[in-house]
Amino acid sequence: MDYTELTEQERIRREKMEELRAKGVDPFGSRFDRTTTTQAIRNQYEQYSHDELESMHVEVIIAGRIIRKRDQGKAGFLQLQDRDSNIQVYVRKDAIGDEAFELFLSADLGDIVGIKGLVFRTKTNELTVKASEYTHLTKALRPLPDKFHGLQDVEEARRRRYVDLIVNEESRRIAMLRPRIIREIQKYFDGKGFIEVETPVLHPILGGAAARPFVTHHNTLDMPFYLRIATELPLKRLIVGGLEAVYEIGRLFRNEGMDAKHNPEFTTIEAYLAYSDMEGMMDLVEDAMSTVVYNILGHYEITYGEKQINMAPKWARVHMVDAIKQVTGVDFFQIEDLETATKVAKEHHIKVEKHYGVGHIIQSFFDEYVEDTITQPTFVYGHPIEVSPLAKKNAANPRFTDRFELFIDGREYANAFSELNDPVDQRGRFEDQLKEKELGNDEATEMDVDFVEALEYGMPPAGGLGIGIDRFIMLICNVNNIRDVILFPHMKHKP
Fold this sequence. Notes:
InterPro entries: Aa-tRNA-synt_II, aa-tRNA-synth_II, aa-tRNA-synth_II/BPL/LPL, Lys-tRNA-ligase_II, Lys-tRNA-ligase_II_N, Lys-tRNA-synth_II_C, NA-bd_OB-fold, NA-bd_OB_tRNA. It comes from Paracholeplasma vituli. This protein is α+β, with helices and mostly antiparallel strands. It has two domains: 8-144, CATH 2.40.50.140; 167-315 and 376-484, BirA Bifunctional Protein, domain 2 (2-Layer Sandwich), CATH 3.30.930. It contains 16 helices and 18 strands. The chain has helices at 8-22, 38-45, 50-56, 93-96, 98-106, 154-159, 161-167, 169-191, 232-240, 278-297, 320-328, 338-347, 358-370, 423-438, 449-456, 469-477, and strands at 59-72, 75-81, 86-92, 112-121, 127-138, 195-196, 202-203, 215-218, 223-227, 245-253, 265-274, 301-304, 307-310, 316-319, 378-381, 403-408, 411-418, 462-468. The protein has an eight-stranded mixed β-sheet, with helices on both faces. Helix 7 crosses helix 8 (169-191), helix 8 (169-191) packs across helix 10 (278-297) and helix 11 (320-328) crosses helix 13 (358-370). The longest helix has 23 residues, at 169-191.
């Protein structure tokens, strides 16, 4: 084997791999049956003194990675790390035998080993396993990052998550907290009588949200498909079918920019409830998210960066137009024509695209001037009809819809509305979207004839919601970049 392009450390480790083979030891091991874990040992025996442990004679079998090691003649110590924790192991030559002790001496940081031994306390009172058997399991051919500095390059940490998880306790914490949060979300909706379902990832028609899609091709059908940008339309078909309360937790895909808040694939929950509406969805989102936060943290207060976010129920509710007026002084309840709205937009340095109506300008005002000013959980409702093609018109003012978004610390966390169940109105909204697409809006949805036909069979009045799970996890974990709550985020190629 040509080792010339390897670092000195990598060459030495490969030579050790060959030495193991020469001794009849498989460098990459085989099955090893553990009886416990390092965390279980701490949980069960941390309370006992040196003398108590000596009398108990507790034998354990553990396995994990060597993260620290020091030898002192005919004895030595290593720190063994498994999934949940780590523990010190005391290794004596006369206890494990000459051959096994040679394996210990030649072991490198990062190697994976199995240990059988007794739990005891050292003279410094540290809970330790005294090895009676030492088994080499896997040779690490690359050295771990320096223990004092770890992976300093965050981009490299995200790109090589496997190394990041080895050396970064915070990354392991987030990786294990994420599924707990998702289980709490599932438990909440299951407890409310919702049915968890699965809908297709490949969609023949672009719909359910305003976003640019990933496009692929199915060879057998010889037709294009989109990776789903939302689960909305299939789930609402299930409401038509009589399932009445459904939800799906799954990946969505949007062919758009990447930043601290956006990844091309991300996880959401969408839920739909027959006979509910926008206000019912406000209550549901507030109760669901506050309950999950409390069940995970034991309280409602979240420290996010330098801010304190109070997730206790009774969140603020404000109409989008009132929020804009409060910040800018512009009252879009009084501005109904496009000419006046365009003039006001230019005065406020808002760019007006060719396909814009008054509603688009209102949305742009909110995005530019209001969104970043919101810190505590706030429901912003009353979105213009032009930007809400799947929401019901507001009965009192049909320029707006019964839709809301939840904002916390300047970020959107949820989107929900009274679902549009009028098939004639829905067909007209789809047609308006097609006109926008012709005018250059590449995020406009397409005509979904089958969905309109589904509505013609009759969908009960309903409320629907979507919550961005990645952002919710970021909030709970106090993380400011979405890539740090996704195990394998998408990254640019290294130059």
